[in-house]
Amino acid sequence: MSKYIIRAKIEVDGEVEKSDIIGAIFGYTEGIFGEEFDLRDLQDKGRIGRISVDVKTQGGKTIGEILIPSNLDRIETALLAAMIENVEKVGPYSARIQVVDIVDIRAERIKKIMERATEIAKKFFVEKAPDLKEIINNISESVRIAELVYYGPEKLPAGPDIDKSDTIIVVEGRADVLNMLRYGYRNVIALEGAHGSKVPETIIKLASKKNVILFVDGDRAGELIAKEVIRVADIDLVARAPPGKEVEELTSKEIAKALKNAIPAKQFLESLEKEKKVEIQETVAEAKPQIQQILEAVAEVKPKVEVPKPEVAPPTETMEIPLSIIEEGKKLMGTLEAILIDQNWNIIERVPVRDLIDKIQQIEPGKILGILFDGIVTQRLLDVASSKGIKLLIGVRIGSIAKKPENIIVMTFQDIFGISS
C-alpha cells in the first residue's frame, strides 16, 4: 500500500497516447538526480507504483490526469512531484504538467476508519457506549506521555525535557518528535526542515553544551542531513532508523535498538566513506567485461591525439581521440548539455541532456559516430543509441546497466579526459 498519491493535470498541444505521456515522464526525469532517483529503478524496488494516465482529446489537444503512487518519504515525494512538472514535450508537441494534489493515503485511511468506528459505536453500543470523541481523547492522552513544545527562537518542535536533560536526541521533523514522545522520550528536538537549508542555531548551541545523539531516517536523505549537521555542530553519536524506514514510523523496540546501536559521529562518517569505496570498486568490476569490446573497437576510431585507457585496461593500450573533441568534452562539465559527433569527428549539434533521447530517436541511422554529454549513461540511452548505429557514448558516470549492446563503446569523462564529477 502506497503512502501518498501524486495527482497532476496534463495538457498537450496535439493528440498523443497514454504511452507517449508515460514515456515522456521517464525521458525527462532520467538522470536528473542520478541512478538512485531513477524512476524505473524506484519502480523496480517498489518505492513508486505504476503511473496511471487518463486522457481525452479536445480541440486537437490532449488533456487529462496523471496519478503516481509513492512509497517515498514526504520530501522525496515532493521532489518526485516537482520532477514530473519538468516535462516540456510529449513527442513533437509542447506539454504542460501541473501537480494539483498529494494525497496522504494513511490520513485518508484513518479518516475512513474513524467514520466507520462511529457507525459501529452507534449501531452496537447505543446508549451504553461513551461518546466517540471522549474515547479518542482518552486514547490520545494515554498515548501522548509527554506534551509537544516549541523550543528556541526558531520554535523547533521538542519534548519538555530539553533544558533538564544532559543528553538530547536530535531528529529530523515534527512527526519524529511526536513518535518519540509517544514512547516516553522527552529529551527530543527536531531540526524541522534542516535538509537543504541552514542547521538551526538553537541546535548548534545545544550541541556545544550537551551530549547529542543525532537520530536520522534510514535513507539517502538521512545520510545527507547527518553529514551537514555533523559538519556544523558538535554531535557525539549518530543513530539511524532501519534501512528504508523513517523515525516517525518506528516502534518502541525499533527506536530502542537504533539508539543502542548509535556510533560516534567520526565513525559514522568513516562508514559512509567505506560504503562509497565499495560502490566504486563494484563499478570498476562491472566495467571489466567491456574493456575487450573497447579494445576491439580502437581500430574504428581515427587517430589524432593519444589518451590513456581506464586503469582497468592493460597499461600498454591507448585510445586516440581528436584534441578538439577532448577540449570540447572538458567544457561540458556542469552544463547539462550533449554534443553529437559525425563520422568525421565534426560536432554537428548541441542539445540539452534532457532532450538527448528524443533527439537520437529522430536522427538517421549511421549519421552519428558518438555522443559526449554531461549526464549518466543509462540502459535506455544505450538501447536507443545502439539502434541508431552510434559507436561511442561518453558520459560523467555509468548507471546500472543490465545488458550492454555489443556494437557500442561506453566510457566516462574520467576515462578519457582525466576529470570526474
Automatic annotation (TrEMBL):
Keywords: DNA replication, DNA-directed RNA polymerase, Exosome, Magnesium, Metal-binding, Nucleotidyltransferase, Primosome, Transcription, Transferase. Its EC number is 2.7.7.101. One of its GO terms (cellular component) is cytoplasm. It catalyses: ssDNA + n NTP = ssDNA/pppN(pN)n-1 hybrid + (n-1) diphosphate. GO terms for molecular function: DNA-directed RNA polymerase activity; metal ion binding; poly(A) binding. Residues 166-243 form the Toprim domain. It comes from the Archaea. GO terms for biological process: DNA replication, synthesis of primer. PROSITE patterns: TOPRIM (PS50880). SUPFAM superfamilies: Toprim domain (SSF110455). Forms a ternary complex with MCM helicase and DNA. Component of the archaeal exosome complex. RNA polymerase that catalyzes the synthesis of short RNA molecules used as primers for DNA polymerase during DNA replication. Also part of the exosome, which is a complex involved in RNA degradation. Acts as a poly(A)-binding protein that enhances the interaction between heteropolymeric, adenine-rich transcripts and the exosome. HAMAP family: DNA_primase_DnaG_arc. Belongs to the archaeal DnaG primase family. This is DNA primase DnaG. The gene is dnaG.
